Amino acid sequence: MTEVVAALLCQDDRFLICQRPAHKKRGLLWEFVGGKREAGESKEKALVRECREELGITVKVGEVFMELTHSYPDITIELTLFWATIFQGTPQLLEHEDFLWIKVEDIPKYAFCPADEEVLRRLMERGLPRENQPV
Ligand SMILES: Nc1nc2c([nH]c(=O)n2[C@H]2C[C@H](O)[C@@H](COP(=O)(O)OP(=O)(O)OP(=O)(O)O)O2)c(=O)[nH]1
Ligand SMILES: [Mg+2]
Predict the structure, then answer these.
(1) Residues enclosing ligand 1, CB less than 6 A?
(2) ipTM for the complex shown
(3) In a domain, 116, yes or no
C-alpha cells in the first residue's frame, strides 16, 4: 500500500486539475497535484513538498476532504485528498503536461485517474463548499 496525498486547490468557484506527464503511469490523465508520502514525513508536509516540486507554489493545507483506497495493476494507493489554498506563487508547469482551473460542472469533460472518480462524484454532488477551505 502506497500513501499518496493530493490537493483540492480552490479559487472562487474553480479548482485546479493537472494533467499527468505522458511518460508516467496513467500518463495524460487528469489528477489533483500531489504524490507519494516519503518516510518520516507527515501527509501535510508531503503535500507542501509535492506542490512546490510540481507547481512551484506554497500551499496552506486544510482539512481532509476524502480518503480512499484504489488498486491499479501496478500499485495500490491510499489516497488522501486535502482542501488547500495557494499561499505563495502561481502554478508553473514544472512536471505536468498542463493544468486548468475548472468548475465542478466541467468535470465530465476530462478523463481523470480512475481512483479520483469517487472524489469527483462527491464534488459534483456537493459543489465546492467554501467553509471547508483554509483562509
Ligand atoms: N498525485 C496524484 N496521484 C494520483 C491521483 N489519483 C491517482 O490515481 N493517483 C495515482 C497516480 C500514481 O500512480 C500514484 C502516485 O502519484 P504520483 O505519480 O503523483 O507520485 P509522485 O508525484 O510521488 O511521483 P513519483 O516520484 O512516483 O514519480 O497515485 C491524484 O489525484 N493525484
Ligand atoms: Mg505527483
Answers:
(1) 4, 6, 24-26, 31-32, 34-36, 50, 75, 77, 79, 113, 115-116
(2) 0.97
(3) no
